[in-house]
C-alpha cells in the first residue's frame, strides 16, 4: 500500500494535517503556569519543525524538475492505459497489491481514532541555568568578567554592566577592530540569541537579524552610520593631523635625534600615541620615529611607522584598506544585532537588574526562603491534576495552605485587618503586626535606609517616618561626638540635696515646685 509513490504522497499530506490538528489540540489545553506555557510553546515549535520537513518533501514531489515529480507522473500515466482492455488488468493488479499488503499487516486498524495524548503530554527539556530562573532573568556573569578583564572594557559591577549592555559608544575604534572585542561581541550575540530562542521558541528571530544585517551594511557603505562615516579606514583622524602640523613646526627647533631624546621617554610616548605612531621601543627609537615627521605630513610617512589599524588612508595599500573595511563592517553588524536583541529583551534585562538589587540586600536566610518558595511554585505548576476552581472571597481574606480563605476569626486574631504604613519603604502597607515587625530586615526597608544614609540597626527599630529617622540619627551622631551639652550634662542641686539636670531643674523652678 505504501509502496506506490502516490500512496506515499497521500501519507505525507495526512501527516501534515495530523500535525496541524495536534497543534490545535495543544492550544486548547490551558497552560496554568510559566513553566507549562514555555513547554507548550516548545511542543508547538517541534510540531512546526516536523511540518516543515514534511512540506519540503511535498515541494520536491510537486516540483516539475525533480526526480520525485517524474516518478509521480509516470505512476499517474500508468493508471490510465491507452488500451481499454488493459484498464481492468491494472485495476486487478492494484487490488492484488492491496490484499497482499493487508495480509502482511493484519493488525493494522486504520478505523480507530488516533491517540495523540502522548504528544500532547510531552514535556520538552528546558535548558536553563539556575540563575536564569526558567527564562525570567539573564545570566551574563561570565561575559561580565570577560568585559571587565579586557582592554576594551572597564571596571564596573554587574548591575552597571547590565545597564550599559548595548552601549558601545565609549569604546575606542582601534579597540573595536581588535580580535578580542569581536570575539566578545560574538559570544554576547550567541548567548542573547540562544536565550531568546529558548524563551520565545515561536518567534522568527533569524529574519529580523538578517534584515538588520542588510540595513546596517547598506548604511555603512553609504557612510551614514554615526562614528563610521569613513567606513573604518580614516586612520587617526583630523585631531591627529592638527597635532602633526603643530609638531612639524615644533620639530624645527631640534637639529638632531639626540636633541629630541632630551624630551624624555614618557613625553615622546604621548606624542607618538596622539599621532597614531608606534610608541614602543627604546628612547632612541621613539625619538627617531618622531623626528621622521620633521618637515612632513602624516601622509608622507612610511606605513611601517604607524601602529596597527591607525595608519592614514594615503599610506595604506588597497588590500589593507579592504581588510580594515571588512573588519569594521563585521563589528558594526554585530553591534546592531546585539542592540536589537537588547531592545527585544528590555523587560528581561529590567527584571534581572531588579533581581540583582534585591539579592544584594537579602540575607542568607531570605535567599533560602525565596528558593524554597520558588521550588514550591514549580511543584504546584507541575501538578496536572489540580483544577482551578472559583474561590468565593468577598472580604479578600488571605489564602491558607489549602488555597482557600482563612477563617475570619483567625484573620482578626492575627491582626491582619490592621494596616501599618512605612514612609521609609515608600508608604508601603503591611497588614498585621507580624509582617510589620518582619519588614525591618527585608530588602525594601534596607534599601530605604541606605538611600537616607542611615545604618539599619536596632536603634531604628519601629521607626517608620523619614523625619523621625533623620532626627534620631542626628542625635546619635551628636552623642557619639562627645561634646558638652549644658542642658543635659550640667547638674544642679536643690535645698534637699536632690540632683537634677539643668533643664529639669529650670522646669521645676519655673513651676514653683522648688
Structure write-up:
This protein is mostly helical. Helices cover 58% and strands 3% of the residues. It has helices at residues 5-28, 34-62, 67-79, 85-104, 117-120, 141-149, 158-163, 173-176, 179-199, 205-221, 238-250, 257-261, 265-275, 283-291, 318-344, 346-360, 364-382, 408-413, 433-438, 443-452, 466-481, 486-489, 502-510; strands at 419-422, 428-431, 491-493, 499-501. It has a two-stranded antiparallel ribbon. Strands 3-4 form a two-stranded antiparallel ribbon. A hairpin with a 5-residue loop joins strand 3 and strand 4. The radius of gyration is 39 Å and the shape is flat.
In short:
This protein is about 60% helix and about 5% strand.
Question: Alpha-carbon distance between the termini?
Answer: 120 Å
Give me the number of helical elements.
23
Question: On the 0-100 scale, what is the average pLDDT?
Answer: 79
Structural class: mainly alpha
User: Strand count, sense and closure of the main sheet?
Assistant: 2 strands, antiparallel
What's the order of the H and E elements? HHHHHHHHHHHHHHHHHHEEHHHHEEH
Q: How many DSSP E strands?
A: 4
Strand order of the largest sheet: 1-2
Content of β-strand = under 5%
The shape is: flat
> What Rg, in angstroms, do the CA atoms define?
39 Å
State the helical fraction: 55-70%
pLDDT < 50 runs, ≥5 residues: 236-240, 384-388
Amino acid at each position: 500500500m505504501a509502496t506506490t509513490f502516490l500512496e506515499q504522497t497521500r501519507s505525507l499530506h495526512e501527516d501534515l494535517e495530523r500535525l496541524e490538528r495536534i497543534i490545535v489540540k495543544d492550544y486548547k489545553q490551558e497552560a496554568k503556569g510559566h513553566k507549562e506555557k514555555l513547554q507548550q510553546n516548545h511542543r508547538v515549535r517541534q510540531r512546526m519543525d516536523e511540518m516543515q520537513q514534511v512540506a519540503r518533501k511535498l515541494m520536491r514531489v510537486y516540483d516539475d524538475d525533480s526526480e520525485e515529480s517524474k516518478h509521480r507522473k509516470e505512476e499517474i500515466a500508468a493508471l490510465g492505459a491507452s488500451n481499454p482492455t488493459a484498464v481492468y488488468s491494472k485495476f486487478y493488479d492494484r487490488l492484488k497489491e492491496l490484499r497482499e499488503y493487508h495480509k502482511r499487516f493484519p493488525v493494522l486498524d486504520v478505523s480507530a481514532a488516533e491517540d495523540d495524548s502522548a504528544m500532547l503530554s510531552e514535556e520538552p527539556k528546558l535548558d536553563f541555568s539556575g540563575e536564569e530562573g526558567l527564562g525570567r532573568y539573564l545570566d551574563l556573569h561570565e561575559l561580565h568578567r570577560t568585559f571587565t578583564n579586557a582592554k576594551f572594557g572597564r571596571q564596573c559591577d554587574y548591575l552597571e554592566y547590565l545597564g550599559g549592555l548595548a552601549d558601545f559608544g565609549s569604546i575606542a575604534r582601534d579597540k573595536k577592530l581588535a580580535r578580542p572585542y569581536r570575539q566578545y561581541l560574538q559570544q554576547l550575540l550567541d548567548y542573547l540569541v540562544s536565550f531568546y530562542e529558548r524563551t520565545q521558541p515561536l518567534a522568527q528571530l533569524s529574519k529580523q537579524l538578517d534584515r538588520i544585517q542588510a540595513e546596517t551594511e547598506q548604511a555603512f557603505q553609504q557612510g551614514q552610520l554615526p562614528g563610521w562615516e569613513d567606513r573604518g579606514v580614516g586612520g587617526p583622524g583630523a585631531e591627529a593631523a592638527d597635532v602633526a602640523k603643530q609638531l612639524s613646526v615644533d620639530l624645527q627647533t631640534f637639529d638632531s635625534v639626540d636633541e629630541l631624546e632630551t624630551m624624555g621617554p614618557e613625553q615622546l610616548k604621548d606624542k607618538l600615541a596622539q599621532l597614531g605612531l608606534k610608541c614602543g621601543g627604546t628612547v632612541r627609537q621613539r625619538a627617531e620615529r618622531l623626528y621622521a615627521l620633521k618637515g612632513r605630513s602624516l601622509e608622507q610617512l612610511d606605513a611601517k611607522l604607524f601602529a596597527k589599524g591607525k595608519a592614514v588612508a594615503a599610506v595604506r595599500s588597497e588590500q589593507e584598506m579592504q581588510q580594515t573595511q571588512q573588519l569594521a563592517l563585521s563589528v558594526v553588524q554585530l553591534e546592531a544585532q546585539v542592540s536589537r536583541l537588547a531592545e527585544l529583551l528590555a523587560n528581561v534585562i529590567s527584571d534581572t537588574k531588579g533581581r540583582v538589587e534585591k539579592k544584594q540586600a537579602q540575607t542568607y536566610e531570605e535567599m533560602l526562603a525565596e528558593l524554597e518558595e520558588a521550588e514550591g511554585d514549580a511543584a504546584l505548576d507541575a501538578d496536572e491534576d489540580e483544577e482551578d476552581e472559583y474561590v468565593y472571597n468577598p472580604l479578600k481574606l488571605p489564602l491558607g495552605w489549602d488555597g482557600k480563605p482563612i477563617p475570619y476569626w483567625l484573620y482578626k486574631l492575627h491582626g491582619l485587618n490592621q494596616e501599618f504604613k512605612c514612609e521609609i519603604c515608600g508608604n508601603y502597607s503591611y497588614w498585621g503586626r507580624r509582617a510589620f515587625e518582619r519588614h525591618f530586615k527585608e530588602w525594601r526597608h534596607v534599601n530605604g535606609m541606605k538611600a537616607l544614609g542611615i545604618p539599619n540597626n536596632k536603634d531604628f527599630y519601629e521607626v517608620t517616618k523619614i523625619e523621625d529617622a533623620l532626627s534620631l540619627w542626628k542625635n546619635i551622631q551628636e552623642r557619639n561626638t562627645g561634646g558638652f551639652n549644658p542642658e543635659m550634662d550640667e547638674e544642679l542641686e536643690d535645698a534637699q540635696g536632690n540632683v537634677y539636670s539643668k533643664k529639669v531643674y529650670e522646669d521645676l523652678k519655673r513651676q514653683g515646685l522648688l
